[in-house]
Amino acid sequence: MATAGKIVASSLCHTEMFHLFEGKDKRGFPTVLGHEGAGVVESVGPGVTDFKPGDKVIPVSVAHCGECRFCKSPKTNLCERSWINDHVDLMSYPTTCFTCRGQPILQFTSTGTFSEYIVINQIYVVKIHDDAPLDRVCLLGCGIPTGYGAAVNTAGVTPGSVCAVFGLGAVGLAAVMGCKNAGASRIFAVDINEQKFEKAKLFGATDFLNPKAYDKPISEVLAELTNGGVDFSIECVGNPEVMRAALESCIKGWGVSVLVGYTDVDFSARPIQLISGKTWKGTLLGGYKIKDSLPKLVNDYMTGKIMVDEFITHKMDLEQINDAINLMKTGQCIRCILNISK
């Protein structure tokens, strides 16, 4: 049960960067990249009843069939029909609607929003408000809900708590925003690029740390500044060493650390970190069930409850995609909006 849509705008996310430069499975190519987009339904296939031509939609790389045991459980936003279950190495289903000169081209994370037109299963599509600006709410397809939900859903940040966010890309900044909106009293923004601190302040960070400025582990620095460690830490880098540092930065007894950044290599920690009462968790798209939550996030943006425009640092045409990639590689870009359809 598929829908065909015209993509109006899409953003470049770190997941594309990982697949291009760090992913080890070359079977994931050739592929049409892009998974943080928004567009308009052009047509619907047999059996599709939730959408009609003209609907504004966000295609999302996390499925929500609404029928499997995971979709019916309030404990998770996983779905048994998702490509993630069996094809995470490819970052795509092995079957695809895209071809070029008779050869199949994969559809990245089931979306492929760097194409003007896509065909996508309806379990990956969310209808949004008719007045939503597509060149902005496309960011709600991945990065912002991932970081924001990591704070408000997965970590469960509480009023008056002390938090630390590791990595100040779009996902990390969204996590900072989530900590602030959840009522945290102190939010440490941790990054080796100090140029990002001013932007983090805009989203609610109160303290700023560059791990390279200290001759001791950043976990020890945070422990000294917080009388033992933070209540909540959120790792938004995708680096095993940072994951461990985030866990070790939490206070024993009740500290919670959430892994958000993706990588496909092993990570580790000493058992005493968990035996002492800390919790180590992971999150996918911030724990949001897409059909239920993304329309609400769009409305929250439109009513001023969450920030979206502030993440956008660049706007380009799709033909400038290589320039956008270079900006992200060098840390000069938070989010670049690409105009997909003229």
UniProtKB/TrEMBL annotation:
GO terms for molecular function: S-(hydroxymethyl)glutathione dehydrogenase [NAD(P)+] activity; zinc ion binding. The keyword Metal-binding applies. It comes from Cyprinus carpio carpio. Keywords: Metal-binding, Oxidoreductase, Zinc. The lineage of its organism: Eukaryota, Metazoa, Chordata, Craniata, Vertebrata. Belongs to the zinc-containing alcohol dehydrogenase family. Residues 6-130 form the Alcohol dehydrogenase-like N-terminal domain. Residues 170-294 form the Alcohol dehydrogenase-like C-terminal domain. GO terms for biological process: formaldehyde catabolic process. This is Alcohol dehydrogenase 8b. Its cofactor is Zn(2+). GO terms for cellular component: cytosol. Gene3D superfamilies: Medium-chain alcohol dehydrogenases, catalytic domain, NAD(P)-binding Rossmann-like Domain. InterPro entries: ADH-like_C, ADH-like_N, ADH_Zn_CS, GroES-like_sf, NAD(P)-bd_dom_sf. SUPFAM superfamilies: GroES-like, NAD(P)-binding Rossmann-fold domains. Coiled coil: none annotated.
